[in-house]
């Protein structure tokens, strides 16, 4: 089975992010923070890893509709591919728009908007649950007879296109932006300023927003993020916190009808007896402060090194997943998710982060000791695992030997 183009593009993504970081340092524009950027990429890692299992429901569902209920057989010609591209982009627009206008669907999309920065790493900040909540929007494509392979490939390229528009480096692109989505258009989409909220939902094409009344030009620089900041670098909690918040809101309203409406209405909706709709508050830019936790340079270096290890392990897993047994897939996926969670806790300087990280180091050391034995032999594998464990623990103790931050809880 051919690899997803998104997975094949991961090295290119990382190279372009590195180039933007270098540009940012040269120009001193403060577009990147290590903790936020790593959290963004970690969300993408978790989405890709869990997506390997979720596609059993998402892609398989499209396949079932196509195989059993399609009305036509679409010929394999270039112009039908063009029609398929327009169709996928059209239904993406509606899936995306509804993800902003239905609380239950917003749970699966809000993760992408949580970052308070705007750079190429934000493009990789994808939710674990979004595809599972919106896959059925594309069923009309299956009913019309567009093959599953077309849907998967075009959907991947639609997502790839959207990578480069997550940047502040590129300004207004003039006539190109009359038809296509651009960085300026998408910066608006990520803004939490009231006039920018729920605007510019297009994927590749911006024409749908112009046609259906959701287009907004970029005027002043947006303030990025969501109206209730997530305030975490823990990617597991970043994905689960929206569910927790909606559950808490449901407990404040009475009656099944109101609870159902709260799930199906736009964010901010409340019953009339509780004051009705609550619009997004204005952003006071002079007092606005991003969520941040200061850690030492030594801690930053340690976390960056460990994150490179996680990236390498994730890349190996994504490119070799089909050669692993199902139990091995689950085990490696769990270790990857646990790893990015642990590093996030360290960025937050949680009081228990040391023990969570120590367990992670031990698990990774054991994995290194046994997983590559078929390639380099058990003795060398165990030596590598032992060296990794010893060095990591020593450095971990050194970087955490200083007093904890007042943010530690």
Account of the protein in words:
The protein has 409 residues and is mostly helical. Helix 3 runs parallel beside helix 17 and helix 17 packs antiparallel against helix 21.
Number of strand segments: 0
SSE pattern, N- to C-terminal: HHHHHHHHHHHHHHHHHHHHH
Backbone structural class: mainly alpha
Using the CA coordinates, give the radius of gyration. 22 Å
Largest sheet: none
Low-confidence stretches: 403-409
Q: Describe the global form.
A: globular
Q: Into which percentage range does the β-strand content fall?
A: under 5%
Distance between the termini: 46 Å
The whole-number mean of residue pLDDT values reads 90
Descriptors for this entry?
single chain; 409 residues
Write the layout of secondary structure elements.
Elements: H1 5-8, H2 10-27, H3 34-54, H4 58-69, H5 78-101, H6 103-106, H7 110-113, H8 120-123, H9 130-134, H10 139-143, H11 148-161, H12 176-179, H13 183-189, H14 207-212, H15 235-250, H16 256-264, H17 297-320, H18 326-347, H19 353-370, H20 373-376, H21 378-399
Helix pairs in contact: 3-15, 3-17, 3-18, 5-11, 17-18, 17-21, 18-19, 19-21
């Amino acid at each position: 089975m051919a690899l997803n183009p998104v997975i094949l593009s991961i090295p290119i993504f990382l190279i372009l992010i590195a180039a933007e970081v270098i540009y940012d340092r040269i120009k001193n524009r403060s577009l990147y923070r290590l903790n936020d950027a790593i959290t963004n990429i970690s969300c993408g890692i978790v989405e890709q890893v869990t997506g390997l299992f979720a596609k059993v429901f998402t892609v398989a569902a499209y396949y079932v509709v196509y195989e059993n209920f399609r009305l036509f057989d679409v010929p394999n010609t270039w112009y039908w591919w063009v029609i398929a591209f327009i169709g996928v982009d059209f239904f993406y627009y509606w899936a995306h728009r509804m993800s902003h206008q239905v609380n239950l669907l917003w749970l699966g999309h809000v993760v992408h908007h949580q970052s308070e920065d705007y750079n190429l790493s934000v493009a990789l900040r994808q939710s674990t649950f979004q595809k599972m909540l919106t896959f059925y929007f594309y069923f009309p494509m299956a009913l019309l007879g567009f093959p599953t392979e077309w849907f998967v490939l075009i959907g991947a390229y639609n997502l790839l296109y959207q990578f480069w528009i997550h940047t502040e480096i590129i300004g207004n692109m003039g006539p190109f932006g009359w038809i296509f989505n651009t960085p300026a258009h998408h910066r608006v989409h990520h803004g939490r300023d009231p006039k920018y909220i729920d605007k510019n939902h297009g994927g590749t094409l911006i024409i749908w927003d112009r046609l259906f009344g959701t287009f907004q030009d970029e005027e002043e620089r947006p303030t990025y993020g969501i109206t209730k900041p997530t305030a975490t670098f823990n990617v597991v909690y970043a994905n689960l916190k929206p569910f927790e918040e909606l559950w808490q809101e449901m407990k404040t309203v009475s009656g099944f009808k109101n609870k159902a409406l709260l799930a199906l209405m736009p964010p901010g909706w409340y019953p009339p007896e509780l004051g009705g709709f609550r619009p997004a508050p204005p952003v006071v830019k002079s007092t606005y402060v991003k969520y941040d936790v200061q850690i030492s340079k030594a801690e930053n270096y340690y976390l960056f090194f460990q994150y490179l290890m996680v990236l390498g392990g994730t890349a190996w897993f994504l490119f070799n997943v089909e050669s692993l047994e199902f139990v091995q897939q689950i085990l490696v996926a769990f270790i990857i998710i646990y790893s990015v969670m642990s590093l996030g806790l360290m960025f937050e300087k949680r009081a228990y982060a040391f023990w969570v990280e120590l367990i992670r180091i031990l698990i990774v050391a054991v994995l290194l000791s046994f997983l590559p034995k078929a390639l380099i032999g058990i003795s060398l594998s165990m030596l590598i695992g032992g060296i990794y464990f010893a060095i990591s623990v020593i450095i971990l103790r050194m970087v955490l030997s200083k007093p904890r931050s007042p943010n530690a809880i």
